[in-house]
Amino acid sequence: MSKEFDVLVIGGGPGGYVAAIRAAQLGFKTACCESNPYADPKGEPRLGGTCLNVGCIPSKALLHTSHLFEEAGHAFEGQGISVGTPKIDVPKMIARKSGIVDQLTGGIKGLFKKNKVTLLNGHGAFVGKADAGWQVQVGEELVTAKQVIVATGSAPRHLPGVPVDNKIVCDNVGALDLDAVPKKLAVIGAGVIGLEMGSVWRRLGAEVTVLEAMPEFLSLADQDVAKEALKVFTKQGLKFNLGVTIGEVKVGKKGVSIAYRDKDGAEQKLEADRLIVSVGRVPNTQGLNAEAVGLKLNERGQIEVDDHCKTNLPGVWAVGDVVRGPMLAHKAMEEAVMVAELMAGQAGHCNFDTVPWVLYTSPEIAWVGKTEQQLKAAGVAYKVGKIPFLANGRALGMGDSTGFVKMLADATTDRILGVHIIGANASELISEAVVAMEFAGCSEDLARICHAHPTLSEVVHEAALACDKRPLHF
Ligand code: FAD
Fold it and tell me: Where does the record place the Pyridine nucleotide-disulphide oxidoreductase dimerisation domain (predicted)?
């Protein structure tokens, strides 16, 4: 006898658990299965996927602690506070991080109970289709569901021939769990994860060298922001080698030796105590038995979906990191809600043009919409409003006035096309731009809105005013 549901969600990360909760709220008899690579030592299942267990949340906890440590070491003195030389207790910092993870993952179990979602502990794999719906093997049980949402997420990409032991050579899992500050840390990949993890361990005292294959730094970001970021991070002590080709990586008991060719073609060697490999992520489709039911994947191994996250199979949907688009938790959650609402016959919607990007470095970097280089390439006529945080009283009071806000608006219609921020609290400030763009707002709309004084949001306001060449404080 198989268990029967209206909806089965495969995977309990941000895409999966949100899809399950919303589907249940809309009246579907819903189950969510999770294969639980993050089960605790007692085998207790943990929901939340990459994001809560080994991604967004633990990384932000460590970024916060390391930021405080750095402030105590460098910034307090200038404000008249003496605390002596700060010391870091790494196991205590890691335990605090793990406590936050436990609290949040446990919270999702509570949300499942509240919303009457059935949690199935086991790996989900397609079996076939019967009259009652799609059949999926979950652990020992056969489950039948009228509709299936695949939300199996992604896993770290590893370098060929370089085994990750999460002790000497780490991916995101090990990088969030080091037992001590390495003296020398090598990072391969200057993407979001490499920069965030490199920042954590640099702030705590490691000598960090980042090797990146792309000749351009942060090629996805507006290049004005990328240039400023490279300047600031380098000043902070992160060492960057861009445009490199990685050669042989030799792993010993105490460290690694990385051979690489630099941007001029010269052979180089980097010795380090630890290596973090952050060269991207691959979609999790292995073990899903996609071929048994003819579920189509694209050339990148992602499940092929349309703008509404429909796959080629009727009643089978896919969301989050396992499909195209940015690998971001909030994008996964947006898609999840859209799918549940479409299943219920509602007008589910996900605007991919207003998905914000954030790097939680110091200063933070955040953007939404088009970059200046994208607008140039598309031949769009635009105007620019750019204001530094240095002109803002709150930023000066906080002792954190690095960076700027840059707004790009259509030269004819004034509609906001992109907003790019490097500076304190950029992760929060970007929401104003997202709201404005979601409502098809113009720079004049933001310029005419009253912003509280003194706040960092006044820099967004001034950037909007600057689009019309009438800033008041710069
Ligand atoms: P996942 O979170 O990967 O969840 C998929 C789940 O499915 C997993 O629990 C997995 O065990 C389970 N699963 C897989 N296959 C099966 C199967 N066959 N049966 C049952 N279960 C299965 N994003 C942000 O937006 N902000 C950030 O600050 C941020 N920071 C990050 C920091 C790091 C270090 C990393 C690694 C990622 C970060 N991300 C961040 C990305 C974010 O974690 C992902 O975009 C997000 O988790 C994707 O959600 P998902 O539900 O698609 O997949």
Answer: 355-464
